[in-house]
Write a structure and sequence with these properties.
Layout (H helix, E strand, L loop, with lengths): L2 H25 L12 H8 L3 H13 L3 E4 L3 E4 L6 H10 L2 H22 L2 H19 L3 H17 L4 H18 L9 H16 L3 H22 L1
Antiparallel strand pairs: 1-2
Helix pairs in contact: 1-3, 2-3, 4-8, 5-8, 5-10, 6-7, 6-9, 9-10
């Protein structure tokens, strides 16, 4: 990995840490609606980071709808909950192709971060859920198969070690299931999906984001084709 890429990853991780801490203070009402965030210099001093890191962290909070940023007027807390309902409403009304593109974009970002941040415990959990998934498929137990499949993908999201990403994934996944039902985890896809999922795990284990992204895209493309066919 080049020095520039390493610096980008490091900067993003610092910004994530800052945004996570501030988000936690907002959601736990340490900062309440109407409160202003400390100025950039104060946040820089508090977290011992540069201005660009603070601005990136603030942008994350603004994108989540938690704060309002107005030049010359400061940054104000405007919401103390994450926008779960907005995700559900948007997905419910979106064309299928848009929903799958959104899932692909989200899971690509997640698997990239998981390759960077995963630890041995994360890998053990992913491997365990794939074993449960295989056993369920062999028993033709569709409910158990679907549950294990969900847990595998949740384990990848947890492996990012970013609670913002994990919460966003949980909200999106629940809304996605509500929209498309269970058509995206059929056991008749098991053989092909089994290879894909094992390759996703191998890529994360090897910290190879390029391979991980490639296999995530193949998995979602396969599921999208199946859903379209079923429709």
């Amino acid at each position: 990995m080049s020095t520039n890429n390493h610096q980008k990853f490091k900067s993003r991780t610092l910004a994530d840490q800052v945004s996570q801490q501030l988000q936690s203070e907002i959601l736990n009402h340490q900062l309440t609606i109407g409160d202003r965030l400390p100025t950039e210099p104060k946040l820089m001093a508090r977290f011992n980071v540069g201005r660009s890191t603070i601005r990136e962290a603030v942008k994350v909070l603004a994108n989540l709808g938690l704060i309002d940023v107005r030049q010359g007027k400061g940054t104000t807390v405007i919401n103390d909950t994450l926008p779960r309902q907005a995700v559900a409403t948007t997905l419910k009304n979106a064309p299928a192709i848009d929903a799958y593109e959104a899932r692909k974009a989200l899971e690509i970002g997640i698997v990239n971060l998981a390759c960077l941040n995963r630890n041995a415990t994360d890998l053990k959990a992913m491997n365990y859920y794939l074993e449960i998934r295989a056993a369920a498929a062999n028993r033709y137990s569709l409910d158990a198969y679907r549950h294990a499949d969900e847990q595998f993908h949740e384990a990848i999201a947890k492996a990012t070690h970013n609670p913002v990403v994990k919460d966003l994934y949980d909200d999106f996944w629940q809304s996605f299931k509500n929209r498309f039902g269970d058509s995206f985890t059929e056991t008749n896809l098991y053989e092909e999906q089994s290879t894909i999922h094992q390759n996703i795990l191998t890529a994360i284990k090897q910290r190879d984001p390029h391979q991980a992204v490639d296999w995530v895209e193949k998995n979602i493309n396969l599921l999208e084709q199946t859903t379209t066919t079923n429709d």
